[in-house]
Amino acid sequence: QVQLVESGGGLVQAGGSLRLSCAVSGRTLNNADLGWFRQAPGKEREFVGAISWSSGSTDYADSVKGRFTISRDNAKNTMYLQMNSLQPQDAAVYFCTCRYRFIVGSLRRKAQEYTYWGQGTQVTVSS
Description:
By secondary structure, this protein is mainly β. It is 0% helix and 50% strand. It has strands at residues 3-7, 10-13, 18-25, 32-39, 46-52, 58-60, 68-73, 78-83, 92-100, 116-117, 121-126. Strands 2, 4, 5, 6, 9, 10 and 11 form a seven-stranded mixed sheet that branches. Strands 1-3-8-7 form a four-stranded antiparallel sheet, with no helix packed on it. It starts with a strand and ends with a strand.
């Protein structure tokens, strides 16, 4: 079983920055893809970005490209989401997630394609 624990959420002014962390335990990440999703009140959970743990390749939603960066620390089994130039529309609960791939393929953008989820961390952006 894989456990994911997010941290780093909070309140920030528009234009500010936050860094979220996702600590992963329970299973090796050699064949894993990790992702970030977010969900605002009354809205569906939406893809933010993803990273291949083995290659480090990334994919981002258009809405965050150029502002958000995903990285990983292999030694700490931790994924990060650096969020810059935050806007009120970025406010949401942010979830990290994990899936294992057994064949070569692209990073996934649909929530139902991910297996393991963290509990989420709240990001609030004041205007």
